[in-house]
């Protein structure tokens, strides 16, 4: 939210969505929105560069907050866990207002221009994750590759859980669904940084029989062994 | 490439890129392109819906080919390996003509509209991978989640290696870089489908000591053990 006149900004968003739902997005002009909100055109463009931007009023703030959150990270923290915490900030923007989030989801599905806009927003979140991970994995073997792949996996996991929740009209527990999805990514990639001092390498002893066994079988076996513990 | 008059289509692409490089993308009109190519405006729009489309002349064909390739998959094949093969088809489109691919990469970096276009193309590839994987993992635990996350990871790995190669002006071995990147994804996710009949579970025997050891340490240990074999 802008720090000046948030009430007018909120009124513009409310008027815009009322008209988008009544008439459709394409059939609504900025003039219609400002007339309903009782303000002038210049007030609209003070808050939103275009009609598309009023559909995603909180993403710029959320991107800024999330980037600042990552920049303020403890250099010793688990980088993947930190990115997962950043994802929870993004999710909160959706779950704070389920009705609005579901309305926007339906609108975005119907209007190709809005889908393209959303795609560019998702890409900016993913790049923010990747830039942070690149910094943390700098100098490590395949650092940028691992950063990019893990960032994409985290974003995809979040989006999979979020979209299920939006498709269910905001019913169910979005937080729990996203935690579960992030857990899958964390199991796949583990802690991508260097091992911390309290995890000495000699903690692990492994014997593998028959060299032809595929790696995924071995990992599956270990996962179930650890779960039994 | 279109099956009819590919020479005219190629001539339009060549003329467009000559002008984009000489004058810049924004400063070049469709009229400029058709004048240089010696054809009429209608010929241009027969092949390309807009000026943006002439920058990515092979993506529609490539997307079609790749989707058909995935649709024709053996139902018993390793789904992740199959998606990696599909990625190799996409890569070949870039490596077939390194000069053109590098020129386009530079152009795309400079023009925001083209970056948005490219983003939507990348998204369509990723969705094609995800749709195929969703079909293959249908009914399995977390099937759609795993499909979406693995598809995003594969696309990110490919793009990481491809962009390094494009940034190096097409020098170096793009195929090898992409294989390496895909290997990282395959190690993280293994074979996401059911184990095949010729890989009986008793092929693997694993002993893990100290239950507090993190999974990534165990996997790292096994990977190096298998590599030593």
Describe the structure.
- The structure is a homodimer of 229-residue chains.
- The first copy, chain A, is mostly helical and 229 residues long.
- Chain A has 2 domains: 6-53, Homeodomain-like (Arc Repressor Mutant, subunit A); 58-189, Orthogonal Bundle (Tetracycline Repressor, domain 2).
- Chain A is built from 10 helices and no strands.
- Chain A is elongated, with a radius of gyration of 22 Å.
- The model of chain A is unreliable at 194-203 (pLDDT under 50).
- At the A-B interface, helix 7, helix 8, helix 9 and helix 10 of A face helix 8, helix 9, helix 10 and helix 11 of B.
- Chains A, B: InterPro entries: DNA-bd_HTH_TetR-type_CS (IPR023772), Homeodomain-like_sf (IPR009057), HTH-type_TetR-like_transc_reg (IPR050109), HTH_TetR (IPR001647), MftR_C (IPR041347).
Major sheet characteristics of chain A: none
Structural class given helices, strands, pairing of chain A? mainly alpha
Terminal CA distance of chain A reads 48 Å
In CATH, the architecture of the largest domain in chain A is Orthogonal Bundle
Total helical segments of chain A: 10
Q: What is the oligomer described by this structure?
A: homodimer
Relative strand content of chain A:
under 5%
Overall geometry of chain A:
elongated
CATH topology call of the largest domain in chain A:
Tetracycline Repressor, domain 2
**Helix percentage range of chain A:** 55-70%
From the alpha carbons, calculate the radius of gyration of chain A and give it in angstroms. 22 Å
The helix/strand series of chain A, from N terminus to C terminus, equals HHHHHHHHHH
Total tally of structural domains of chain A: 2
Keywords (chains A, B): DNA-binding
Protein name (chains A, B): TetR family transcriptional regulator
């Amino acid at each position: 939210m802008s720090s000046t006149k948030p009430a007018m900004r909120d009124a513009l968003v409310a008027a815009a969505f009322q008209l988008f739902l009544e008439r459709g997005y394409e059939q609504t002009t900025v003039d219609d929105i400002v007339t309903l909100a009782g303000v002038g055109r210049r007030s609209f463009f003070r808050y939103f560069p275009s009609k598309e931007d009023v559909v995603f009023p909180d993403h710029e703030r959320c991107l800024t907050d999330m980037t600042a959150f990552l920049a303020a990270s403890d250099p010793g923290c688990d980088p993947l866990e930190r990115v997962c915490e950043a994802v929870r900030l993004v999710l909160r923007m959706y779950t704070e207002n389920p009705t609005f989030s579901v309305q926007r989801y339906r609108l975005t599905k119907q209007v190709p221009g809005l889908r393209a806009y959303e795609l560019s927003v998702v890409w900016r979140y993913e790049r923010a994750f990747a830039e942070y991970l690149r910094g943390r994995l700098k100098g490590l073997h395949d650092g940028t590759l691992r950063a990019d792949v893990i960032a994409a996996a985290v974003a995809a996991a979040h989006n999979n859980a979020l979209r299920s929740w939006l498709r269910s009209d905001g019913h169910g527990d979005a937080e729990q669904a996203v935690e579960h999805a992030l857990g899958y990514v964390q199991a796949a990639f583990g802690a991508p940084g260097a091992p911390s001092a309290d995890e000495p390498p000699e903690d692990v002893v492994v014997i593998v029989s028959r060299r032809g066994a595929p790696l995924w079988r071995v990992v599956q076996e270990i996962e179930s062994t650890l779960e039994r513990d």
